[in-house]
Amino acid sequence: MNKQRDFVLVYINGKRREIRGQQAFLTLSDYLRLELQLRGTKVVCAEGDCGACTVLSGPVTADMKSTDVDYQAINACIVLMHSLDCSQLISIEGLNQIYPERLHPVQKSMLDCHGSQCGFCTPGIVMAVAGMLEVPAKLTEKNARNYLTGNLCRCTGYQQIIDAVVNTDISDYKAAKTHFHSDSIHAELVTAAQTPVSVHYKDNSFIAATDISATLDCLQSQQENTDVPQIFAAATDLGVQISKGHLARQNALSLHLLPALYEFKITPEHCSIGARVTLTQLRSRIKQQQAEFSDFLNIFASPQIKNNATLVGNIANGSPIGDTLPFLMVMDAIIVIQGSQGIRRCNINKLYSGYRQLELAASEIITHVEIPHKADGAELKLYKVSQRRDLDISCVSAAFKVQFDQHNILIDAAIAYGGVAATVLRLTAVETMLKGLHRDEFSSPEKCQEIAASIGSSLNPLSDVRGSDNFRNTLIENLYKKFIHEQKAEQIAGVCDEN
Ligand SMILES: Cc1cc2nc3c(=O)[nH]c(=O)nc-3n(C[C@H](O)[C@H](O)[C@H](O)COP(=O)(O)OP(=O)(O)OC[C@H]3O[C@@H](n4cnc5c(N)ncnc54)[C@H](O)[C@@H]3O)c2cc1C
Ligand code: FES
Ligand code: FES
């Protein structure tokens, strides 16, 4: 086995950095600004919501080819240095290294199109667009709007910023990856990714093993010492708690050195998604099997969050407004859990026992999620209602899946709502009421009204800053009506197409 590392290894703007001790537990923005004096990366919200701190990150795994590395925009304010182990990182200062004699094309276009006033958001916007060009995505207005979902500007009109993106001169564009990612750097990061790491500072620790049994041993042995480490994935949930001072101590166990957890597999029965697969990867890879879910992920957070955050993090976080959960519940997704006793499979509908409480022992980890393919003819709709469309937390969310047989009799129904109780709920009693209905009756205004009212009366949502109980009750009923309305419209459109 390779020797253990006592440092986190990153390259920042092409320069090798061994991160030890306290520095490993800083956010990337603090490390850049306070330790390296690279202050082009700005911090405004410190919770992943404004994009001022956007940088590019290219993580490398143990079995990755150099050509497979992706440089993508992430938020530096909520990501911990240890979570970036084995990555190449580019800050706004790095762009100057690519074009030492002149402005980077995105900077130049921002200047030419008057895309900046006070300039505080500008480095973050330039980095988000640089991330878009790494993909590379076409410089269309639609793409510009999508890739800038996570960037706020308070003083320049957004139109100038969009104009700047669309008019960027990319005739001799040099991608950050092409400039910074040499074979020797890649080889060194791959070797590091094959080496266990353990960094400690006072009562903070960061540990990552290169095989699953060592990872489980570590969880087990620390548990015996009553000091259970917390699993860190991308830390988009945990990082906010740290940057806001709600989690004083980091006792982090990372799964980033376990190659099997980066796997995405399609079998005849399901898609299997490893715990380290990001939401951006998931969104593109699952497009064919689960088109509705892939589209739904467009309104999950921002590109900066999705480029880093994992599906498993969303599941394990267990929030009643976790956006992926209603979908996973109606699909009866299987959560694959590994502990020292072996592997067990748990239907996600049996995973949650209370507000952010999971049927998961502290010595267990979630390794994969299996999402069964939709049955032929199954119809699925996913909804999220929030105060704004992009980069906002759900007030109420819902998933509806129905299937009719050849005689138009409803043979399967699954309904789940988020934001209405301590956990996301499957409405099994309502599902039973629906089964056996003929499509005409199912879609009739009377039945729609009856079922919507019955869903409303079966749920008792709370009031909070995102909406009162009354408002949520109205949403709950209206989402069902919307589902019936859209479903009916699609049926009619389908019949018209056939004719
Ligand atoms: C600005 C912003 C916007 C957001 N927008 C949305 C949104 O639109 N919708 C939404 O639902 N969420 C949103 N989130 C929340 C968050 O991004 C998601 O929940 C994300 O999926 C968490 O993934 P992660 O990899 O960052 O998890 P982490 O923060 O690393 O971990 C989350 C939890 O999961 C546990 N965990 C992680 N991996 C495992 C594992 N393999 N086994 C067992 N436990 C594990 C961790 O211990 C922790 O308790 C947002 C967050 C931010 C900061
Ligand atoms: S400072 Fe606002 S997203 Fe990081
Ligand atoms: S230019 Fe001032 S915040 Fe964008």
Summarize the structure.
With about 500 residues, the chain is α+β, with helices and mostly antiparallel strands. The chain contains 19 helices and 20 strands. It is globular.
Radius of gyration: 24 Å
Indicate how many domains the architecture comprises. Answer: 3
Distance from N terminus to C terminus (CA atoms, Å) equals 66 Å
Q: Which CATH architecture of the largest domain would you pick?
A: 2-Layer Sandwich
Please report which band the strand proportion falls in: under 5%, 5-15%, 15-25%, 25-35%, 35-45% or over 45%.
15-25%
- Biggest sheet strand line-up: 2-1-5-3-4
**Main sheet?**
5 strands, mixed
- What ranges have pLDDT less than 50 throughout 5 or more consecutive residues? none
Describe the structure.
This protein is α+β, with helices and mostly antiparallel strands. It folds into 3 domains: 8-94 and 178-254, Beta-grasp domain (Ubiquitin-like (UB roll)), CATH 3.10.20.30; 100-173, DNA polymerase, domain 1; 263-498, 2-Layer Sandwich (Uridine Diphospho-n-acetylenolpyruvylglucosamine Reductase, domain 3). The chain is 35% helix and 20% strand. It has a 5-stranded mixed β-sheet with strand order 2-1-5-3-4. The protein has a 5-stranded antiparallel β-sheet with strand order 10-11-16-12-13, covered by helices on one side. Strands 6-7-9-8 form a 4-stranded mixed β-sheet, with no helix packed on it. Helix 3 (105-112) packs across helix 6 and helix 18 runs antiparallel to helix 19. The chain binds flavin-adenine dinucleotide and FE2/S2 (inorganic) cluster (2 copies). One FE2/S2 (inorganic) cluster (FES) binds at residues 116-122, 153-156.
